[in-house]
Records
---
Amino acid sequence: MNLIYKPLPDTILNAVSHVSGYSTAELTAKGHAHTISQWRQLGIYAARRRGLTLAEAGKVFGRHFTTAIVADRKIMALVEDTKVGKALDAINNFIDEQNSSHGD
């Protein structure tokens, strides 16, 4: 059985920061820069797949849950794109490494 542990919000934020190269402060800032918002959307999508609610996923990146809904749907439509898939794999690998201490 492959158990998936619900990561801490900081783990998700740190994973996106690590993979993207943007600081956690940049990822949670109020700005709407297109390049950073794409990484936020990836993070929200990854958070949702890891068991966080829309409200929790949005809060990780300082966004309202309605923004999280839009982000989740947008990435869901793009998940087959090679670049998006590789970025999500990298984010998930980072999260898995951080969670590997949970009883393995």
Note: The chain has six helices and no strands.
---
Amino acid sequence: ECQAVHRAVAELELPLQNVEDQLIALGLALHRQDADAVDRVAAELHLALASAVDQFGRAARTGGVPPLLRSRLARAGGQVAAQREALARATASLDRAIDVLIPRAPAANLYSAGGGADRGLQGGALLA
């Protein structure tokens, strides 16, 4: 049984470390506000997470995942969720700032002040 645990740790350590490394890189890219790096690292993180989840799933079906690695994977999942939430808050804040600086065009009026339909035609020929 001890050998099986060591083998599971050895097989799962690399993909988990890759996820943790990508999370650190994403945090740094976000801190530097480097959009290109954020895009690149986010894609790499996605691939690393998919690989780790696949390998952890196989390990769980064939003998289990050591508690320490399970805990590290859960912590990494929490970090992903926290970064996603922080990015969503930053995006919402930026959207609000843009709305203040560049107000959206008012919706087109469907009726003129006199009550008639205002379709934007000022005269002239209708083009087909």
Note: The mean pLDDT is 81.
